[in-house]
Design brief:
- The chain is globular and about 80 Å long.
- The chain has three domains: about 130 residues, no CATH class; about 55 residues, no CATH class; about 80 residues, no CATH class.
- It contains ten helices and six strands, in the order H-H-H-H-H-H-E-E-E-E-H-H-H-E-H-E.
- The protein starts with 13 loop residues before the first helix and ends in a 14-residue tail after the last strand.
- The strands form three sheets. A two-stranded antiparallel sheet has the order 1-4.
- By secondary structure, it is an alpha+beta fold.
- Bound molecules: zinc ion (ZN) (2 copies).
């Protein structure tokens, strides 16, 4: 459905304008950290997309109305990825996690409604992998997941109970540009579980002692990444170890934790050995994403 951006039907040329605006402005401004410029440019395109959806409804074209939802999700996806970087640069790493989840949700929605050809044109699958790699930089491994017993549900499209046979709407499908979902009117909480792969990764579980530390210390990998790489860079992470002589750790007090990560006091651990072997992460940059499918990328100074 993103095809509409390249080949809009007659009367909907506004889609080409959206595409041109995004192509000309997004990558360039993202690389120059001009987040406000991106924010206002994309919000403007978002409202143009909303008026095109309105037009398609008036003209009785459900297919275009549905395509407008996917284009809207694409704009939202670009917006959330830019907001993600705003948080990274502000060192708000905990908050950046939620923005990353918003970006992933938008992309999952787009992927469901686009064919392989368009996915590869916009590099969407590669970008999905990029977002997974970003997720892996965070120390979150356990999440809280709650289970509810739904007592009363209604369909967001027709307002009936999804169990009535008059309701033909399937949750997650598009109808006249709106996604059908089940609205839970009444429910009971059954349980809260700690899981590794929840549907929603926003409820993270973290040790309270960790939360008193600064964000850079709580999220060392994210901190390093944010300082050394830029938006839309493809990267690989290689986890290895490095060994340094104790003279390298002059600032570490003998009663502090050993830099090797054993949890022992420095004086009882590697200080005796004369060298410290500690975890080491290597980031390798592998070029830049061409997410808005520009022919030529205009980048700022490297
Ligand atoms: Zn319904
Ligand atoms: Zn040690």
């Amino acid at each position: 459905m993103l095809r509409l951006l390249m080949n809009p039907p007659a009367g909907y040329e506004g889609f080409s304008d959206i595409h041109t605006k995004i192509t000309r402005n997004y990558t360039v401004n993202l690389h120059r950290s001009r987040y406000e410029v991106i924010e206002s440019m994309l919000l403007e395109q978002q409202s143009i997309c909303t008026s095109l959806k309105q037009l398609s409804r008036e003209q009785g074209n459900e297919q275009i109305a549905n395509a407008c939802s996917v284009v809207g999700a694409y704009i939202s996806f670009l917006l959330n990825y830019s907001r993600y970087w705003t948080r990274l640069h502000a060192q708000q790493y905990r908050a950046s996690w939620d923005k990353l989840q918003d970006t992933i949700d938008d992309l999952s929605f787009i992927l469901r409604f686009t064919g392989e050809e368009i996915q590869s044109h916009f590099q969407l699958q590669l970008f999905r992998e990029h977002l997974s790699k970003l997720e892996a930089l965070y120390p979150f491994t356990v999440f809280a997941s709650s289970e509810f017993l739904n007592l009363k549900e209604t369909c967001s499209i027709c307002g009936r109970s999804p169990f009535e046979k008059e309701c033909t709407h399937l949750p997650g499908e598009l109808y006249w540009g709106e996604v059908a979902h089940t609205i839970v009117e009444k429910c009971e909480l059954l349980s809260v579980a700690m899981v590794r792969n929840p549907m929603d990764k926003r409820c993270v579980v973290q040790a309270t002692e960790k939360q008193t530390r600064g964000e850079a210390e709580q999220f060392p990998m994210v901190h390093y990444f944010a300082k050394h790489l830029r938006p839309l860079y493809k990267f690989e992470v290689e986890e290895t170890t490095e060994t340094k002589p104790v003279s390298f750790f002059k600032d570490v007090g003998v009663n502090e934790q050993c830099p090797c990560g054993s949890g022992e006091k420095y004086k009882k651990c590697c200080k005796l050995k004369g060298f410290v072997t500690r975890p080491h992460v290597i980031f390798r940059s592998k070029g830049v994403f061409n997410i808005t499918c520009q022919d030529r990328l205009v980048l700022g100074e490297q």
